[in-house]
UniProtKB/TrEMBL annotation:
Keyword Endoplasmic reticulum in record: no
Location of the Cyclic nucleotide-binding domain: 24-116
Location of the HTH crp-type domain: 147-220
Naturally occurring in which organism (per UniProt): Paenibacillus terreus
Protein name, as recorded: Crp/Fnr family transcriptional regulator
Length: 238
């Protein structure tokens, strides 16, 4: 029987919207089906839309001058995706690739601006979403810059635990297959260094593998390595 204290639930980043505000957002969406491998937008495209992920998964990436891909975010059902400064005619500074066939609601910036101007409750909820968006970005950069690659890896494993974790006895299984290449792209490291760091964490009993899935066996050890600040799960996510 599962320990009730270990129940992990994913909440999309739109949880900050009240039911009324969220229904207003749904009313202006245009539904689209996006196939696996397609892009919602590319780095350099004009940012004139925001996307709500009704069903599916999307990764947001940044490409360096050397051609290396850095994974910034992994979005899933219930998340809203796009630039958090929608009223300045800016361009996307990253690309969004669809990882599986997805159903998406497309929100035009003009419609979003009307909602904000006409409904003060919606405007407040949208500000909460923007604040959450920025906090997620800030905590990720903190993890990457302050505690080296081992700290960044442990922080990423904790975020995967909070986003995709499923209790399995005393442990938690990350129920999405994450390769060493994916992990290296998430923390800006080489695949070889990720292999070494994961091997070290396995020797210490912090993680294990089961059928190709990462198993978190000692969350407290990971939290100690990355000096975890115990952010809420809606912030500490992949």
């Amino acid at each position: 029987m599962r320990n009730p204290e270990m129940v992990i639930e994913h909440r999309g980043n739109t949880v900050c919207f009240s039911p009324g505000s969220f229904n207003q957002l749904l009313a202006v969406m245009k539904d689209r089906h996006i196939p696996e491998g397609a892009h919602l937008f590319w780095e350099g495209d004009t940012s004139d839309k925001i996307f709500y992920l009704k069903q599916g998964r999307v990764k947001v990436t940044k490409t360096t001058d050397e051609g290396k891909e850095l994974i910034l975010y992994m979005y899933q059902t219930g998340d809203m995706i796009g630039q958090a400064d929608p009223f300045f005619g800016s361009k996307h500074s990253f690309s969004a690739e669809v990882l599986e066939d997805s159903d998406v609601g497309v929100i035009d910036h003009h419609d979003l601006e009307l909602l904000i101007c006409q409904h003060c409750d919606f405007a407040i909820d949208f500000m909460k979403w923007m604040g959450s968006y920025h906090r997620i970005t800030q905590t990720k950069f903190r993890d990457l810059m302050l505690y080296g690659k081992p700290g960044a890896l442990c922080s990423t494993l904790i975020r995967l635990h909070n986003t995709y974790g499923e209790p399995h006895g005393e442990d938690v299984v990350i129920n999405k297959k994450i390769t060493h290449t994916d992990l290296s792209n998430m923390i800006g490291a080489t695949r070889e260094s990720v292999n070494r760091m994961l091997s070290d964490l396995r020797k210490k009993g912090a993680v294990e593998y089961d059928g190709g899935m990462i198993v978190i066996k000692n969350l407290e050890m990971l939290q100690g390595i990355c000096h975890c600040e115990l952010c809420p799960k809606e912030i500490c996510r992949i």
